[in-house]
Amino acid sequence: MTTSPRSSMETHPDIVAMRTRHEVAERATSTPMAQAIEAMALLTGVYLAASPWIVGFNNLSTLAVNNLIVGIAFALLMSGGFGRAYERTHSMPWAACVMGAWTIIAPWAVAGDVSTTKSIVNNVIVGIVGLLLAMTASAIARENHSSRTGHGMSTP
């Protein structure tokens, strides 16, 4: 009877690849820039959710509800709630980009007459900030994904 040396599970190629992906994602999320983006995104989402009451257009109920829902969703997507592991959820920031763009056009797109000066200015500024944060997070995720797979973008 021949015996072959038993390999440890720790050296299995799938385990090694999974550990490498986890380490790369951890490095990406532990950089000061990524942490700053997450913190600013959390504040942006919380502000967007509370903005109808802060700015004073909570009587425009459709826009107030819209901002509340979109603000909470933006905060969860961008601030570590679901977007913590960038290599697995690198498309999450793109969803947040859509939310930022929606925030900009929401005063005109939601039902009813909700376009007042303060609601428009608030949503345009918060939407632009959210869009920029989401695009930056997406760039970090893409850079992290490209460096991990070796498919970095190079200019000729």
3D architecture notes:
Helix 3 packs antiparallel against helix 4 (92-109), helix 3 (61-78) runs parallel beside helix 5 (117-149) and helix 4 (92-109) packs antiparallel against helix 5 (117-149). The chain has 156 residues and is mainly α. The protein has helices at residues 13-29, 32-56, 61-78, 92-109, 117-149. Mean pLDDT is 77; it is low at 151-156. It contains 5 helices and no strands.
The major sheet is characterized as: none
The tally of strands reads 0
Give me the strand/helix succession: HHHHH
Give helix % range: over 70%
Instruction: Point out poorly predicted stretches.
Output: 151-156
* Mean pLDDT figure: 77
Per DSSP, the total helix count is 5
Question: What fraction of the residues are assigned to beta strands by DSSP?
Answer: under 5%
Assembly of the depicted chains: single chain
Overall shape: it is elongated
Cα(first) to Cα(last) distance is: 60 Å
Please give the radius of gyration in angstroms.
21 Å
Q: Which structural category fits the helices and strands?
A: mainly alpha
Any key phrases for this structure?
single chain, 156 residues, mainly alpha, 0% strand, elongated
Quick recap of the structure?
With 156 residues, this protein is mostly helical. The protein is 71% helix and 0% strand.
Per-chain topology:
Blueprint: H1 13-29, H2 32-56, H3 61-78, H4 92-109, H5 117-149
